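BUG: 3D viewer hangs when loading the predicted structure for this chain

Environment: internal workstation, default settings.
Expected: structure renders.
Actual: progress bar stalls at 90%.

Input used:
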Amino acid sequence: MYKFKPPKDSKLAIILTRVLYPLAMKLRKQRISLKIVGDGLKRYRALKGKRVIVCPNHSAQDDADVLLGLACLVGEDFNVMVANELFERHHGYDGIWLQWIGCYSVLRGGHDVESVTMSKNLLLKGQKKLVIFPEGEISYQNDRLISLEPGAAKIGLWSLEELRQKGKKDSVYILPVAVKYTHLQDLSTNLMKCLEKLESELEISIGLRSSPEQRLMMVFQTVLSTWEAEQEVSSPPSQSLGDRIGILQEAMLKNVAESMQIDLPEDASIIHRCHVLQNEIVERKKQIKRAKLSDKSRQDRKEILKGYAKDTRRVISLSAMSGICVSDHRGQEHLVEAINLLEEEIFGKVSKKGPELVLIDVGVPIDLDMYYEKYKTDKKAQIGEVTLELTRRLQEMLVGDYAPEASRPFGMRY
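Structure tokens produced before the viewer hung:
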């Protein structure tokens, strides 16, 4: 049974994390350099002492490291809403540390009243800025958003409502933050080697004279056909790539749900249904751990759950793969994103491509007081309006010209 994990801020853990952060990043990765672009730092500091929900896009697994780096750059600590699964890693030890540095859990795909209440209480206290990833899932794309969840807008407006009921005139702000990963050197040779390894593993022969995009699409099509065969899904030649992906995603969700004997909400999004399955997988792992089983039986059950988790993760990554592979954009970063996804699936890990510069754009904050009068008479509509405005601002920042170095064209010519 899910148990909410509140933040248990430890000054010692926070100080240690800040001190060790640069060394940890050097040891773990071929980077990380962070840069707040434009007037971002000025806009951030203008909110000092305000009640703020920081809302970054969520394009990579490294976003948490980037947010920690941002905290070091601005000299502030955050309270961060984190997916419950991350608290369970390494037998729960990750969760202990997360709580110590100000994180708290949320059950994605469920009604986590305790997490929402904690978010509101932290905002009302106003001691730290609150970080919520509004997409609720990793998009795996530098320049595109998954449909935003309304949670940040709800929490912000509910908190503002309580402030007004207490006679306080303070406002609550939602701060859009765009995080963009870039490589400042030409990765052409490196990326060609990555494609060759993928083609070799999948036994694909397309010819070195083909463009990188053609070779990438062939790799993706091969992976897609393999997954369709595993799920016993057939696709006629006339079917579009988008339709194939949609049908395969639904088949995967249906097969996992039926195998686990779970009823999924039919009207929910693909991401929401994946979260429901992921929550159940986490709970069943705990049950296996507690149960009195032989070593073989325990291992067999773990392997079955591992398969369910893999298929659920594939459903999420399929959307990103399709968006990347069929895009008209031909920038270097786009190819890196696609190759990273395919490497993760085929090899189980992502190869290092080269040093990265992570660009952070701090946007113009959304003052929720501007929505409050209409919110009093139509709460649902104004929550939707705030979510749409946050979407608009984040998307504009992600495709804007603040980072021309992030659009380096692919260097190889054929």
